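Input/output pair, single chain:
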Amino acid sequence: METSFFHKLVGFNPKTMKVRTEILAGVTTFLTMSYILAVNPDILSATGMDKGAVFTATALASAIGTLLLAFLAKLPFAQAPGMGLNAFFAFTLVLGMGYSWQTALAAVLAEGIIFIIITLLNIREKVVNCIPLNLRYAMSVGIGMFIAFIGLKNSGIIVDNPATLVALGSFTNVSLVAVIGIILSGVLMAKGVKGALFYTILICTAIGIPMGVTTLPENFSPISAPPSMEPTFMHFDFKSLLSLDMFFIVMLLVFIDLFNTIGTLVGAMAKTEMMDEKGNVPRMKEALLADAIGTTVGAVCGTSTVTTYVESAAGIAEGGRSGMTSVVTGGLFIVALLFAPIFLLVPSAATTGALVMVGVFMMDSIRKIEFDDVTETLPVFATILFMVLSYSIAEGMALGMMSYAILKLLTGRYKEVSITLYILTVLLILRYIYY
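Output:
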């Protein structure tokens, strides 16, 4: 069978691959990650951003990032604003540290540009090796717990308490919809239903209508032109980017995005024939470049960091092996723009199940953590614990890295820490002293 120009563009080999399989894989990937179209606007709107504009930015940035992966890297992966990174944007940068969402968008833009430079200069290995392996696993676990905590808090399952700081909330219709979502998402995931989180969100949104949780506007139509991105498009505030705090923030965003992308690419391909005999991912540089450009485009549109989604593994499991899978997924994100009214109808309670399940998935990394060495486990524990207790991904990562470097230094094992991490530790100490 002759290979067409399009097939060459997306790395499709008609001798070993089937178009039907690639299309099915693309649809599967979209269904498994389409919950982001409801969850991301819900999370970022907490900062005061226009929910409709964020929806359009989310769908468009996801489509562009995914298509970049298809044509640059020719790999069956998809991109969208990352879970954890959107929580960092909303609940740490804006609501926690008091920056405007316009400043937070400028930080994401700076991250994307730095990521592009790092990738083009081939220095990603030095950046990755700066953070110890156990701390990388701890970051994944901590971010997962933080995301789940946000879902429980937003739905009223967890509330503040003057005596104990937090407590279980009262039994309300909102919390009931959230509990239904948690149970339903767990059941559907256990049954292996493709798009389980997406279907859970839709079902809980529908259940919420008679319960008064979902507000159905008059003359509701499920299809319409996508909302304008004007309220968020290129709304940057660069004034605060030169501070030590913001330098640390931007570098954290780079680290998280880089680790997430590399971990996703390696993890999803590990059980396929796509990796070479040395365990290397083909066209890794191009995949990272697509991720970096996707983040930059996402910031311009008005959304948080765009990253490669681990849910892509669902499409790969269906047989997706080329960029054609990504073309299908990216195309479906464009189609989803027409269904904005449905996604914008979703209440916070309906997304709780998805947030909790994402937290459950991210707990998987805890099995890889080394628990026999206290100089490793104490920083891991600090990273996870303080992400949740301080309600800040940044604080958890900072305290984890600082404690790691200090413990290794004071126990005479200073050679186990990179120079870069020592420099970061000094900067972090200065940050806590002067801010």
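Residues 10-148+225-345 form one domain. The beta strands are 79-81, 158-161, 165-168, 306-308.
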